[in-house]
Write a structure and sequence with these properties.
By secondary structure, the chain is mainly α. It has one domain. It has 15 helices and two strands. Strands 1-2 form a two-stranded antiparallel sheet. Helix 3 packs antiparallel against helix 6 and helix 8 packs across helix 13. It is globular, with a radius of gyration of 20 Å.
């Protein structure tokens, strides 16, 4: 059965820079195509492509060197194991490079002038540690409860872990795509984050603390801890919550991108460019004035 030409046209339209549509299904498709837009933009802008390839080439070269140290038969296995272990490292060490890439992508997409959101290495390292702790501790009690489900508990745990991890991949993409308006500082971003509501999982914990028959105070303390750890990503998590259909599409295409050999080496620059486009469109006053969230 052949797909209708109109569907291909819709996908083609979404790959070009444009504001998000209104219909829920179209927003899913829009989200799905944003990494494709990232690939397209990188392919047509040499300076962007060069900036995107630097971290990927450095990481790939290091992984290849490690893989070559063993038997050739296991080269690909060792390469991707090393890549998986070291994948978070560029986001910390080369965070400034990615910040400049995000600002450059905004300019290439025709949005107004912005400055890269470059943070000190110490701050990036602290954020990475907070995120690792947060991702682990929020999932732990949920995994414990799901494990108790007879028969399919292990499957539910795996599914929850996959969804939770993908949620953070998307949050990280939009976090890396942050920029500074002219005259704006990191302190201004921190102040703005304080005004954003607590993440959805923190609100759930606060809700549970008021209703559990015992241990409510412990749950409340846990919720407050998670809230403090989540502070650097409040805006990005709120964005995911505000635009669920768009983010579902973005998450699915990001997962597919991670599964494609070679392309997954450059997945971070690709999703940063896609996220930069989405943020630029969502921040436009024209879009905000005519479109409800979703």
């Amino acid at each position: 059965m052949r797909a209708s030409p109109s569907r291909f046209a819709a996908v083609r339209d979404h790959v070009a820079p444009r504001s998000p549509p209104v219909a829920a299904v179209d927003r899913v498709v829009y989200g799905l195509t944003q990494p494709l837009l990232g690939v397209r933009l990188l392919a047509t802008h040499r300076s962007l492509l060069k900036a995107a390839l630097v971290p990927a080439v450095l990481l790939a070269a290091f992984c290849a060197a490690i893989a070559l140290a063993g038997h050739r038969d296991d080269f690909l296995h060792r390469f991707y194991v090393t890549f998986a272990v070291l994948a978070p490292l560029p986001s910390i060490v080369l965070a400034g490079h990615y910040a400049r890439l995000a600002a450059h992508a905004r300019h290439a997409l025709g949005f107004s002038r912005v400055d890269p959101c470059i943070e000190p290495l110490r701050r990036n390292l602290a954020r990475a540690i907070k995120q690792a702790i947060l991702v682990a501790i929020v999932l732990a009690p949920i995994s414990g409860l799901l494990h108790m489900v007879p028969g399919i508990g292990w499957l539910l745990v795996q599914a929850a872990a996959a969804v939770w991890a993908l949620h953070w991949v998307v949050v990280e993409a939009f976090d890396a795509a942050r920029v500074l308006r002219p005259g704006q500082t990191l302190a201004d971003l921190d102040a703005a984050a304080l005004l954003v509501q607590s993440p959805w999982y923190v609100r759930w914990l606060f809700h549970a603390a008021d209703r559990v028959p015992f241990g409510g105070r412990l749950v409340l303390r846990f919720a407050r801890l998670c809230d403090r750890l989540s502070l650097p990503w409040r805006e990005e998590i709120a964005l995911v919550e505000e635009h669920p259909t768009l983010m579902i599409g973005f998450a699915l295409s990001t997962a597919a991108l991670l599964a494609v050999p070679v392309l997954n080496l450059a997945f971070r620059p690709i999703v940063i460019v896609g996220a930069s486009h989405v943020l630029g469109q969502l921040e436009s006053t024209d879009y905000r004035s005519r479109t409800p969230p979703g």
